[in-house]
Amino acid sequence: MKNLAIFDLDNTLINTDSDHSWPQYLIQKGVVDAEYTRAQNDKFYRDYQNGCLNIDEFLKFHLEPLSRFSKEELAEMHREFTAAFIVPHISPMQKMLVESHRNAGDELLVISSTNEFIITPICRLFGIENVIGTRLETGADGRYTGNYVGTPSLKEGKITRLNEWLAERGETLASYGKTYFYSDSKNDLPLLRLVSDPVAVNPDEVLQQEAETQGWPVLNFKL
């Protein structure tokens, strides 16, 4: 029976937070108000770390700038962003982790609360095709509207989105032998507690304590 290896992205497969880095890129590029964007970005990041993020307020802030550009313009911006803000934060060990599961014949999946525009090209760097992120609405003009659709993949929302993905494939978690989930954040405890093989990666304090209590493996790629 095939195994399923699920990965969080930010601070798990990459040693940075792409959701937090994208506004920093927009500031550097000079296309947003620097003072406002920096203040809001840092506030929402603290809220996420503290487990009290208002997802609707965050997504309204984070997705609005996407509506200002065509998808072609955004694709070029993403290439610049990835080269400067993401690639320097990927370690060989993180790529080796993914490769170990690929070589074992496991199904690979990334599930992240970060939106699909940001995470999909980053996942491609790891050769991962199955990607679940917060889904974005596209208008009749082909641009992102600044709104999201469906359930944001945050906290319990990751379980909802995972079950939707499995159902589309005619599967459940029981369709797999082992189900792994790698994550850094206490926000992911609902899904970590659901899978057969949870693994803490670069864990925050709460997840570190839970991993020690439960005897979960702990990996640190930031050493």
List the helices and strands and how they pair.
Layout: E1 4-7, H1 18-29, H2 34-49, H3 55-63, H4 71-86, H5 92-103, E2 107-115, H6 116-124, E3 130-138, E4 144-149, H7 156-168, E5 179-183, H8 189-192, E6 197-201, H9 205-214, E7 218-219
Parallel strand pairs: 1-2, 1-5, 2-3, 5-6, 6-7
Antiparallel strand pairs: 3-4
Helix pairs in contact: 1-2
Global morphology: globular
Work out the strand percent.
Answer: 15-25%
- C-alpha Rg, in Å? 17 Å
Beta strands, count = 7
Which structural class do the helices and strands define?
A: alpha/beta
What is the helix content? Answer: 40-55%
Question: How would you briefly describe this protein structure?
Answer:
With 223 residues, the chain is α/β, with parallel strands linked by helices. The chain contains 9 helices and 7 strands, in the order βαααααβαββαβαβαβ. It is globular, with a radius of gyration of 17 Å.
